[in-house]
Automatic annotation (TrEMBL):
Tagged with keyword Methyltransferase: yes
Domain Methyltransferase: 57-149
Keywords: Methyltransferase, Transferase, Ubiquinone
Example of a GO biological process term: methylation
Coiled-coil spans in chain: none
Transmembrane segments annotated in the record for this chain: none
Alphabetical list of InterPro entries matching this protein: Methyltransf_25, SAM-dependent_MTases_sf
Protein name: Ubiquinone/menaquinone biosynthesis C-methylase UbiE
Length: 243
C-alpha cells in the first residue's frame, strides 16, 4: 500500500523528474497515442473548462506538469504537496506568475485554504497512489474549500470493487496471493503501478458521504475515446459541490 511515507520518498527523493512530469508518457503509449496529443486533449477536455471558472487548487503538483495550464486559465492557483522540494521547484518555475499560493501538507490537511474559496480542484497521477484514509481526508477537505457549484477532476485508482473484497483472502497466501490479486483487480501479473486499493464505487461513496455529487466517472476522453488511463485500470471522477 503506498503510504504517505512511501509517497514522500518516491517523489521527494527517488524520482529524478527528468522532464518535470512529462517523463510519464506510458499512459499515452499504452493507448497508442502520441504523448503531446494525449496531454493536450486531457488539458482541453478536463482541465481548461474547470480552471476557467475561478480560483483553482491542485493536489500533488510535482514539478508543475499541470500547474502550468491551471495558471494559464485560472485567476489564482493553490498547490498542496507532501514534498517541500516539489513545492520549491514550482515556486521557482512559476516565480514570474502572479496568483500561485503554496501549502506543504503533512498528509491531507489544507488549513490555510479558506472555506468555500475554490471553484475547481484538479489532481492527476496523485490519488492513484493514496491510501483510502488519505483519499477520504482529502474529500472532506475538498468539500470544505470548494464553493457552492465548484467542480473537481480527480484521477484515482480504479480497481473493481468486488476484487478488493477478495484481498483479505489473497493477502493471507503471500506472494502467489499478491500476484493473483494483481491479475484479478488490474489484469496485470506484475507492475501494479503502485496503485492503492481504491475502486470507482468506493471513491463515489466517499465523495457523496462528504457532500460532493458525482457528475461522471470515466477512463477515456477524446472524440473517439482514444485517450485513456487504462494502463493500470485507473478512473477519473468528476465531482460537483451542490450549489
Ligand atoms: C507521481 S507525482 C505526480 C505529479 C504531478 N501531478 C504530475 O502528474 O506530473 C505525485 C505527486 O503527488 C505528491 N503527493 C503524494 N502524496 C501526497 C499527498 N498525500 N498530498 C499531496 N501531495 C501528495 C507527490 O509529492 C508528487 O508531487
Amino acid at each position: 500500500m503506498p503510504t504517505v511515507e512511501w509517497n514522500r520518498k518516491a517523489w521527494g527523493k527517488t524520482h529524478s523528474w527528468d522532464q518535470q512530469g512529462d517523463e510519464w508518457s506510458f499512459m499515452a503509449s499504452h493507448c497508442g497515442q502520441p504523448y503531446g496529443k494525449w496531454k493536450a486533449s486531457l488539458v482541453e477536455t478536463l482541465l481548461v473548462p474547470g480552471a476557467s471558472r475561478g480560483p483553482s487548487l491542485e493536489i500533488g503538483p510535482g514539478h508543475g506538469r499541470w500547474t502550468e495550464h491551471l495558471l494559464e486559465h485560472s485567476p489564482g492557483v493553490w498547490i498542496v504537496d507532501v514534498n517541500e522540494n516539489c513545492l520549491d521547484h514550482c515556486r521557482e518555475r512559476f516565480a514570474d506568475r502572479p496568483g500561485l499560493r503554496v501549502h506543504h501538507t503533512a498528509d491531507c490537511g489544507m488549513d490555510p485554504v479558506p472555506d468555500a474559496s475554490i471553484a475547481f480542484v484538479w489532481s492527476f497521477d496523485v490519488f492513484v497512489h493514496l491510501d483510502p484514509d488519505v483519499v477520504t481526508g482529502y474529500l472532506a477537505e475538498m468539500s470544505r474549500v470548494m464553493a457552492p457549484g465548484a467542480g473537481a477532476v480527480i484521477h484515482h485508482a480504479g480497481k473493481p470493487d468486488w476484487t478488493l473484497r477478495l484481498s483479505p483472502l489473497t493477502r493471507r497466501t503471500g506472494r502467489p496471493g499478491r500476484i493473483a490479486q494483481r491479475w484479478i483487480s488490474q489484469r496485470r501479473w506484475r507492475d501494479d503501478g503502485n496503485r492503492s486499493d481504491v475502486s470507482p464505487e468506493a471513491f463515489a461513496r466517499w465523495a457523496e458521504a462528504n457532500g460532493l455529487e458525482v457528475v461522471e466517472q470515466r477512463g477515456s476522453w477524446g472524440d473517439r475515446g482514444q485517450h485513456t488511463v487504462a494502463k493500470y485500470r485507473d478512473s477519473i471522477t468528476v465531482l460537483r459541490k451542490p450549489a
